[in-house]
Fold these 2 entries.
Entry 1:
Amino acid sequence: MKHLVLPRLALTPATAAAAPPAGRDLRLDLFRGVALWLIFLDHIPQNVVNWFTIRNYGFSDATEIFIFISGYTAAFVYGRAMRERGFIVASARVLRRAWQIYVAHIFLFTIFMAEIAYVAATFENPLYAEEMNILDFLKQPDVTIFQALILKFKPVNMDVLPLYIMLLLFFPPVLWLLVQQPALALAGSALVYVLAWNLDWNLPAYPNGQWFFNPCAWQLLFVFGAWCALGGAQRLSAALRSRGVLALAIAYLVFAFLVTLTWYVEPLGRLMPTWLSDWMYPIDKTNLDVLRFAHFLALAAVTVYFIPRDWPGVKSPYLQPAIRCGQHSLEIFCLGVFLAFAGQFIISEWSGGPLIQILISLVGILIMVATAGLISWYKQMEGRSPSGRSKPPDADLAGGEA
Amino acid sequence: MKLLTALIATIALNCLPAWGAVAEPQPDACEVPASFLESEIDLTRVTNELKDKHRLDISVLGTGSSSLPGPDGAHFAYPARLEEALKQQLPGNEIKVTAHVQPKQTTANMVGGLDKILAEDHPSLVIWQAGTADAINGVETEDFRSSLEDGIEKIQDAGADVILVNMQYSPRTAAMLDVSAYADVMRRVAQQRNALLFDRLAIMQHWNDIGTFDLYAATKKYDMARQVHECIGRALASQIISTAHLDAVRMQTTR
């Protein structure tokens, strides 16, 4: 029953990688839940509520939060399995998780195809003859479906799950190294990131181009999250408590905010010095630009400073909906993608104005919360409460790694 | 005295069409707020050509969304509408708009054919509509950027001004076709390379938002598509006239 006890102090110096803090850090669930909501909102194009999501106020967006926390929880759950039950068992569980995500991805793809096929059959407008070429792939389902199964063909907004699948496929050896030599593993991850940038490593996509989220680059964030979970956060704790780091982080966030302002306020764009824009742009999402990574780090540093692990707020009933969503991230992520399709569909069918968009955003989040509650109920019914810890942690307990 | 009469007559002639346009009973519902068209970039080549030679040669380079289907599609598409609008507003000048429209061309493809077009048309202005085919084909945004930059360099080296035209606002296909990354590239390239941007995406979204056009509507008829192109042609003409400061040109030529 010792796992039931939440540690009183976040930054208790733990005995390094060998023994990360026991118990669940509800802040992770909270922020992952919020990230899931933001991803849902961002996936409805032309939604007025989009203006409130963090991508409009800095370089990084919800994807970074999500990948980092997923790396963190994956290491938390499977790292323990690796120490207690060995490499084979831990690897088998990681790979099973990858398989679950693959199945979820293909399920979403099917729904997406249904929507596309419907639009192709019903929407016609000579004004959009060119745009409708996007539906050409329906003419050769033999190729398209096969390319989707091998994760080369990924329609808009369906890039995140394939990234996870790749990250998890390569996670067992990375995790082994993280448990043995955390610093070496992190250095290796950084090296792959640098090489990916210099040698243009990425996976090919169909019909052409490359993966929108380059796994060779984004692995850095995932491995960094895992490293933090396995004692790295303790090592950084002194830095994270320092006012100097805080000031630096805030300064960078303000800088990023000012830069993003120039994207949306045309007259400000002219104030941007050419040397700065030449140096800064493009801020590459595909390859997890250093500016984005740094922005996420700054955001995380500020968050951790003001919201310590023993922050009582996580027990507030108002935050439980987000925490619940974060605890069942794979299911809620998939639901979010589906709801974004559905919401978009409703907006197009009934020419939704801002009011409809706000309504759809709210209803979508409510459905996500209700579903997360339902999943919790199922698990409780089956004797596997996500908040209680009567068994060793497993993938479901961690709320899923996706 | 004779000179004075001539002067007044010319001024009057030059001003009349503008008045005439206002007086015409057409409801100008699709008028675009000036903020969409304003820019600090001047179309100096256009200004000079009109001032010195009283002519304006424009080449439009584009893909499917620069044309309309149907046998008389070219007549109703925005390049022809632009020519018409400019002729109305700049009388006494020879205006020629040549459209080079080929469906499904990526920006890299278009850059390949650019030299020939520049050599044949000798344009003082190139209106370059791009991005949609690149988004459909999933061309990497970096490649898209460098193609745009190459093209703009060629056009500017040939001494012509550039207007980039971005994608159409197409809410129905937005779930499958995300053009935002490509639109961002165009915006920044235009800013960095001193090219003008005609923000078709924002303008059409504005029309949709205020109810000028219902761009969600499914229809087989050409009416709305033609009206949209008519409006785009006129908005382009307004942008050219304001950024080339053609009212000033008119005044100068009459002196």
Note: Residues 52 and 384 of chain A are 36 Å apart (CA to CA).
Entry 2:
Amino acid sequence: MDLVLEYVGLGIASVFQTAEGGIWLLPLVMVLIGVVIGILIGATPGMSGPFAMAIALPVLVSIFGYTNEALYPVLGCLLGIMKGATVGGAVPAILFNTPGTPDAFLTTLDGNPMARKGQARKAIQTAHFSSVMGDNFSDLVLFIAAPAIAIAVERILDLPEKSALIILSLCFMAAVVGNAPLKGLIGGLLGMFVSLVGSTLSGSGPRLTLGMPELGNGLPLTSAVLGVLVLSEVLVTIEDMSREKARNATPPEPPEMGPKLTWAERGRMVPGILRGASIGTLIGALPGIGTTTAATLSYDTAKRQSKTPEAFGTGTPAGVIATESANSAVSGANLIPVMSLGIPGNFAAVFIILAVETIGDFAFGPQVFRFTPIREVEGFGTILNESLVIAFGLFTMMVLANAFNWTVGGALMGVLGYLVRIPKDVVLPLILTVSLTAAYVQDGGYLGLVTACVFAVIGYILRRLDVSVLPFVIGFLLAPTLENLVRGAYTASGGDALFLLKSPIALGMLTLAVLLLARMVRQARRGTPAM
Amino acid sequence: MTSRPAEASSERTGGRWNLWFGLVVLGFAALCLTVWFPRDIGSGFLQENLTGRVVPGDAFFPVILVLLMVPLAILLIFSQLRGGTARGGEPVGGIGLANLAFLARAALVTILSLLVMNWAGPALVGITNAVGLTEASGYRALSGTFPFNVAGFFLGATLLTCAFLYITRHELRPRDGLIAASTAALLILLFAGLLDNVQLPPNADL
């Protein structure tokens, strides 16, 4: 226990101290900036947390560079944006029946009727209280679960089992994301394949470059993800808006704000918040299942367990509590597979992983949580697990972001209604220009920009065919890890063709993956959605 | 992030796109295994290392990935054919001529904006040379000097934003131009003004 506390202490200190021991407030400031940006973005039509993270990442890397010292400021800002956006989306949903983020959609069901009944302030404060409490709850689970899972994985899983786990995760993700699991899985494999372009393993030179020397260092990672996730979405939305030819209607005047939420009312909300947060945390810990599923499940559960289910949808605070606590709890829990296994489960987690892969030499995975005894060795200095210190540093920044969400978030919530007036048809072209500039700036010129454009077209095609882009992106990010694991497992088995099936755990995971696949095929035949 | 008319497109195109998608994947797999991999991967599926041990070659993982795509594509096609009707099989959207026309328009305005970005700086140097304000040998000589270093980006980025604004709403107001120019100026201030280790387009490719 002393060792754990020692690492926690070092992690907290690393956020506020330089290596030389001086005071360092930059990470704190960047978390604050991130939270404010996230809250504002969350309330802006056409924007979402992952969008802002995608654009912010290249800008932050340009500012802070690629060294280990850049890790905290960059990740602090990204974590702040991720958390801030979960709060901001509720305000336009409540005031104008226009969700700022997709996960705030269900908040409109009861939030807007509350506002129309003259309880807008109460609805906003309920959303804020539930959202931040839910986020805090899932962070606590993350702090405990991520190290526990990582330690278990390190003890139990070897190369074949880790390979099987990634395969199972990808199958699971394809099965639960979108309505076309078979195409989703093919998309995941294509994503893996594309990431191999230009990669080098042995002395045989880079692979799959089509004779283009520019691809010899591999595809620019950030530009590719920016293209497939952000630019393709912008293109699809611009096209839809262009077809609709609909002008943005001027939003109505904000409704009467009404009375404040009392502390007694807050106290009565706690059981509902804990129920919603538990559902959100459970859903969020599974890769691929998003905030909307968590909010829907939580809303349905709250309605079923309520003594007055008929009040749901007419402006009951219980509806706002259920959706906001659940969708915010997803954000912390989504980092459980990221930090313990290195497997991203949603778009926000993709950008956290991208930042880590771009900057310094820290990497997520079970190895992070090795509690190496801290000791001084003469001539070598202090021997410890630096990655574990960084992990606890990240946890510290998440706590700071939560504190800012409580304070700054609460203060900002009241004035966010004005952001709904920003027209979406202006925001989207601006996102496109900023994204292309960011791709050029970070990835060293036109190679980055062209990569972003090519991947935007790939993402556009996938989206138009109703194939989720999430498995493609996750496959793209996980391919190098999976290749190393599979090659290592094959070599360690002495060239056994059945190297993945020799371990009972790996066999169990692969069987589960095959069962998922069979379920996908059955659903594909029936033409019914996956889950 | 946005609502899309997926249902409408599914009904419009039916499941033919599942067949096309599956067939394209099968064709891609065949192309990879017979043409691309043999020519573009330095070592084979397996290779012998210096100690004489058989280890995976550079083609090991790509071949496994492509081979995994084959049964999935067959399943996709099979489930579509077993569905029997245009609505059978996995839900699928579609890409029509209107989509391709939109992509072509988007590509055209992007390429035009990038060309403006690329050539506006050299053009400005040419003009200032012609009127005697500068005596530079070319754009490269002034690519670190304001306003030559950012002129191309300013014009190109403003044009790009305006073009997509026009595509989105079918009209362009003076205020839109102002917003586009302000955004380009803001990006210049951030990347060229505050940061000294990054270069805006086209200066990293000179």
Note: The beta strands of chain B are 46-48, 54-56.
